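Worked example 3 (structure in, sequence out).
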């Protein structure tokens, strides 16, 4: 039986135990090559949203060589790899430069950063740092601590709250702009609030929260403001230089105290790194960990991880110094050009509605029919988008694979077909196949549905970590 989760079950042997005798390297590499080539085909066409930010195999080969040179090195042991300090220090310095940390330096702060394992890692460390800094400087309030985020801000903030015992207060966004207002955020603040969150841009709609207003609010309240630039951090600054309508969201904005920016997204590095930047060294250092009396020796680490691979630092550094500002700007120009053309294709259909004023990443819905009819028809034509809920919408993050010749034109043509099909299905009273899986649950069923959805999610995770059924 070949299921979607186990397409290789019949093609290759299934290792149910650690084999007594190993196989030749060449044989294993051939098998790996075969699976990778099969899987590359799904995104090389440019029809997959997000996920493959570079998509350039020559770039990947270059990164893989950089990674391979240092993959076996543990950067916790700097005495044998001082190169890691060069990589890490320079990655942080370059990211701080991109976020205009010089503006913070002028106001008497010492901007610093850290390299984490990904966007989630950067957000976790930001929340941890705010919590520990607040604990050290003002003491825990009677109600513990809380942070305030727009509902569109990434679930990693909720994960951080869950892990570190910080309450996460969620503020609804304006349904038209898809961003929060400072007034709405102010309503959720109390004496135990340690930080606000704003996104540049948010994942669901690719829109940018009013960072200047949030910064002013944070300053007035004497609390932090984290700008989540996980997605936008390495592309919005170049979009701004190219004349796209992008407001300042970095350390030039008073009140911005931390920024996350993912090198493993539009930094075009390998998966597994991100940067977290601080206006003030004291906040970063508040979450440093040290054990001075361990029998294994004196132990300290900058973040939550212990041993880390030198390969990821080397590859991230290599990507940044290879591309430089001019390289990033050129990729940004191509991506914004493709995104603008795709958004124009959406706008050309009166039945579709683009949500807010999005950037390189955008969402659209319909007030006429269930947008999942469009999703179904586009999927049949090879497109992979993220299906969104509350409200139902289709999400597209434009990356380099979409800048290949013909992709934008194919999107426009397939979208026209899909809209026509959707109108027909809607008129016939048909229910979209994907709507029940990805779409919003009706208000009245929410409480009942929640435990069921959680159970299905757990089963999916279980399946991803299991073996195909025995023959
Ligand atoms: C991707 C993303 C994150 C989380 O990053 P991971 O790298 O998936 O852990 C956080 N915020 C935004 C806006 C993102 O797009």
């Amino acid at each position: 039986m070949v299921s979607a989760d186990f397409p290789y079950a019949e093609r290759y042997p299934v290792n149910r135990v650690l084999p007594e005798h190993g196989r030749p390297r060449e044989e294993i590499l051939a098998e790996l090559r075969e699976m990778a080539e099969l899987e590359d085909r799904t995104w090389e066409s440019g029809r997959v949203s997000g996920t493959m930010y570079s998509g350039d195999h020559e770039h990947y080969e270059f990164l893989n060589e950089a990674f391979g040179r240092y993959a076996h090195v543990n950067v916790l042991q700097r005495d044998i790899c001082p190169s890691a300090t060069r990589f890490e220090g320079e990655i942080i310095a370059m990211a701080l430069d991109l976020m205009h940390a010089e503006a913070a330096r002028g106001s008497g702060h010492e901007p610093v950063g850290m390299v984490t394992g990904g966007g989630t890692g950067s957000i976790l460390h930001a929340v941890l740092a705010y919590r520990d800094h607040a604990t050290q400087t003002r003491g825990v309030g009677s109600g513990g601590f809380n942070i305030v985020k727009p509902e569109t801000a990434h679930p990693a903030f909720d994960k951080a709250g869950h892990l570190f015992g910080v309450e996460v207060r969620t503020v609804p966004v304006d349904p038209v702009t898809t961003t929060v207002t400072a007034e709405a955020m102010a309503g959720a603040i109390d004496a135990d609030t340690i930080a606000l969150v704003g996104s540049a841009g948010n994942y669901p709609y690719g829109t940018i929260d009013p960072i200047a207003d949030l910064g002013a609010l944070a300053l007035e309240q004497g609390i932090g403001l984290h700008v989540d630039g996980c997605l936008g951090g390495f592309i919005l600054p170049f979009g701004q230089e190219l004349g796209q309508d992008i407001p300042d969201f970095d350390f030039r904005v008073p009140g911005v105290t931390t920024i996350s920016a993912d090198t493993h997204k539009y930094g075009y590095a390998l998966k597994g790194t991100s940067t977290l930047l601080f206006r003030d060294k004291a906040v970063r250092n508040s979450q440093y960990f040290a054990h001075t009396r361990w029998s294994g020796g004196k132990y300290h680490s900058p973040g939550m991880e212990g041993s880390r691979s030198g390969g990821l630092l080397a590859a991230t550094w290599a990507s940044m110094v290879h591309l430089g500002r001019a390289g990033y700007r050129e990729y940004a120009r191509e991506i914004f050009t493709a995104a603008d053309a795709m958004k124009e294709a959406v706008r050309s259909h009166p039945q579709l509605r683009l949500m807010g004023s999005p950037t390189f990443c955008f969402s659209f819905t319909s007030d006429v029919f269930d947008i999942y009819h469009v999703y179904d028809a586009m999927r049949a034509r090879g497109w992979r988008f993220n299906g969104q809920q509350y409200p139902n919408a289709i999400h597209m993050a434009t990356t380099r694979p979409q800048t290949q010749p013909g992709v934008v034109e194919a999107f426009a043509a397939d979208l026209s077909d899909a809209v026509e099909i959707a109108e027909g299905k809607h008129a016939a009273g048909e229910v979209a196949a994907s709507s029940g899986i990805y779409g919003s649950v009706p208000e009245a069923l929410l409480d009942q549905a929640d435990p069921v959805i959680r159970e299905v999610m757990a089963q999916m995770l279980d399946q991803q970590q299991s073996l195909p059924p025995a023959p």
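Notes: Residues 83-318 form a domain with the Aspartate Aminotransferase; domain 2 fold (CATH 3.40.640.10). The first strand starts at residue 112 and ends at 116.
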